[in-house]
Model the fold of this input.
Amino acid sequence: MPSATGDRGAEPTMRAWKFLAAGRVAPFGGHTWPGPAAGEPGAWVRFPEREVFACRADDLPWWIAAELWEVELEQPARTLETQVAAAAGRLVRRMTGWDDGAVHAYGVACAERARALAVEALSRDGRTEEAVALARARGMLELCRVARGFAGDARNRRSSNLAGYLAESSMRASEGFAAAAANIAANAAVAARPDDPGAFHRERQWQARWIAQRAGLVPAV
Amino acid sequence: MSAARPQDLACRELVELLTEFLENALEERTRTQVEQHLVLCPGCTEYLRQFRATIGATRKLAEEDLTEAVKEKLLDAFRHWRQGS
Amino acid sequence: MPAAVSSGGSFEGFTGAPGGVVALLSAADRELVDRLRAGDERTFLGLVEKNHRAMVRAAMGYVASEAIAEEVVQEAWVGILQGLDKFEGRCPLRAWMFRILVNCAKMRGGREARSVPFSALEREDGEGDRRPVEGFRPPDDPRWPGHWAQAPERWTDERLADAQALARIRTEIEKLPPNQRQVITLRDIEDWESVEVCEALGISEANQRVLLHRARTRVRQALAGWATEGTP
Done:
């Protein structure tokens, strides 16, 4: 069970971001984080044998969930590949710009990126009518249906694959599985630029910026 | 294993790690990979839910009480043993 | 991470050895043994209540029926009592008890073994156990090798709510190879700590986890409505 400690006072802390499931619930630990009250941050959370994890702005696409919070972490914080870890943390404020609508819009935005890649690839492969059909499709479901039809052409593997990714990404976006849609789109970026080792990372950065803008994050870290 | 993104776990690998995951027996790097994958994979998220639910349901097989008959028999054995030593 | 053994008392000694941890007799267990030796019936009954059912299930892995398993366990209790005076406390009480039980069961099992030879059952601990039937995409899939070919269908709350589900779980556990059955019984039904199970069955932590995982995977599969007959 998490335990609360008193205010950290003069100890150094850092700010970061944290995604939680609805109700301030930790997505993997299952415990509920104490929320801010009466204008004060939530109580400090510290576990006997586990650290507290949070995101820097670049890490956000990896941890998408229903609620986004600004958190304060006790220093020193450990830097990991896609998160930071600290001995204790507390919730400072909820980023209300990140709500269910934002999650859904995020998924759609990522699928739209996949659409652009698929249209470009189909055009390049001379599959002009199919490119136009994809460009014209409205809504995620129609996009999925149309793209799926173009994914099977074995003579043009690359554009077919991108159509396949698009079908999958738009399906996930329509279902509300935004993180899945985003991951598929990032994989599509790799497939579209096979000679570019930075393609995945760049797509993730695009996604991070989208999230930051939509959620109204000010670079706090 | 995935050709597209070198560091993402494939679902087939993840399902094999779940018992260790639930016991916090994975080393940090692998645990992080599992968590990251769960975020982006509804299929594995559902599978983990089912795995946990299975464990919870299995617990219900524990019966509550021994029969009196069995208790009496064993008490007899106990008394017999005490008398013998 | 230290775990409580048997009656949940604090550990007296828990040494870490290169191959793993060696648990010693806890203070609570030592007191328990002393009380038994002094003829304390309530202590004995308490011990019985905590362990008898797990012992019956464990014995069922070796003999043909629950009725015979019940007899085996009663023989084991006698053996345990008779061995108490010589018990040196170099291992947890439960581990020692279970070793006696397993010996009784094996001896009895030799005389009244199940019709399927154990070698055949042991062979089921192979690769075929491991994969959920929903299936994964092959290594040459263009976009998602190793990912779900067919994602698991969402379970509604009703699926696990009724007696049918428990019956299915029970049946599936009974069909498991003996060592998988032992582990899932002790861990998931009887709620033993991992360390206790390792000691009682004489297996390593890693081995125990593999067995538990395979057992759970098969039980989950049964609940998902897929037939499992040990075929890949």
Summary: Chain A is about 45% helix and 15% strand. Chain A touches chain C at residues 49, 157, 161, 164-165, 168, 187, 191 (CB under 8 Å). Residues 13-96 of chain A form one domain. The longest strand of chain A covers residues 13-20.
